[in-house]
Write a structure and sequence with these properties.
single chain, Transcription Regulator spoIIAA
Length: about 130
């Protein structure tokens, strides 16, 4: 498997999985508005630069979520990254139940939005994303 780390910080690492043509975003640690917005800006920029249409979004290493970020992401970021070319996102749940509930409520239903599917583990997300 050929991968290239394209961005790393204390709260997100973004890797390009060249073989599958998607970005792997691994969020970690404590999240807040500043970190979520910065990470999402990086993802949008890199997705556009690399010409990817898929993201595997891994939230398993988040220690402190920013639940409001899920609503912000749904309302602000998802339309922006859809315009940048995102078509499918496999979302691996955070271990925090409140974040999971907010995520499930924030699912997009508009036709012009990317397909976002949620998973309990990376293996399930990986397999789904391969089929898209």
């Amino acid at each position: 498997m050929t991968t290239h780390v394209l961005y790393t910080s204390s709260f997100i690492s973004i890797t390009h999985d060249v073989a599958h043509g998607w970005l792997y975003a691994q969020w970690k640690g404590e999240l807040n508005q500043e970190r979520v917005e910065a990470g999402c800006r990086q993802l949008t920029e890199i997705l556009q630069t690399e010409g990817c249409t898929k993201i595997l979004n891994d939230n398993t290493l988040i220690t402190t979520p920013w639940p409001e970020g899920l609503m912000w992401g749904r309302r602000v970021w998802l339309p922006e990254i859809a315009a940048a070319g995102l078509r499918h996102m496999a979302w691996v749940y955070s271990p925090h139940i409140y974040s999971r509930l907010i995520f499930d409520l924030a699912q997009p239903h508009e036709a012009n939005m990317p397909v976002v599917a949620a998973f309990d583990d990376i293996a399930g997300a990986y397999e789904w994303l391969i089929r898209q």
